[in-house]
Design goal:
about 350 residues; single chain; flat; mainly alpha; disordered N terminus; Annexin V, domain 1; disordered C terminus
Amino acid sequence: MAQAPVKEAKPEAPNDKALIAGLKGPERVAILMMALGEESAAKLFTQLDPREVQKIGQAMAMLPNVTRSQIQAVLDQFVEDLGDQTGLALGTTDYIRNVLNRALGEDKAAGLLDRITATGNRRNLEFLKWMEPRSIAEIIRYEHPQIIAIVLSHLESDQGAEILQMLPENMRADIMLRIAHLDGVSPQALQELDDIMERQVSGAGGGKSSKVGGVKIAAGIMNFLEGSVEEVVMGAIKSTDADLGSKIEDLMFVFGNLIDVDDRGIQTILREVPSDRLLLALKGADPELKEKFFKNMSKRASEMMRDDLESLGPTKLSDVEGAQKDILQAARKLADEGKISLGGGGEQFV
């Protein structure tokens, strides 16, 4: 009896998740935005933070040709994510918190949730996020240090640090101390502050108190200060409150903390930073940290870097610190994207 011919199995088509496995979060959001159309996307953009808009806009501009299958996969994933929540959760704070925690992590989600669920009486404070740091510095320069502290606490750490450096030197430590001591601001105080900002910016309700400031916010701003400014401000803080200064330092992530990043993370950082900036940064690094970088390079690259370091003459401390800040900024960006984990700097792992 003749056997029936065996049919060759067709290769399985890639599933939805495989089609978008290589896409980062902003790229998936960019595809979703484009699929929704201009009008809907524009409405969604108004609800996002300036830096979120920038990330998604860049992703839109950089995306290669997107296939129909990828668009469908992104839409299916979005529907699946919504399906994980019960219908009763839609529109509630719990639902928003779950989605934001999943997308951004608990720390970032907490700040964004506070802004989303606010009663709308902080529109001018939020508007500051879109302004140039120099313009903001001019607006708040003559305000009371407590007002300046609250304003800077509402901004991103790098933006707050840039503004702080534009303010008079004799104000900086006082402002940082006030930021570190901040805990909550009443709705009435926020409304008054918003009114002040409205009066200032005009030329250019109820609810719980708002969680702003604190030692962690202060440490985040300190991380972005130039080395010489950071040293002066920290010295002034410690002379006023040594214990608070130590707490801020414990939460700061400095160049030396890169020793706690695992080898895979160091390799990822090396792919992101120019070799000339790394050379300058390592000029002022501890021998142990230098070796950490060297062992994660190819043999040839490490030998060249060692030779370049030996032949590098006297270098301005400000240039070295500037290079170290650049690498730290790259490391923080990679950590925010989930590509590396930053040890030390006050972070705890279990």
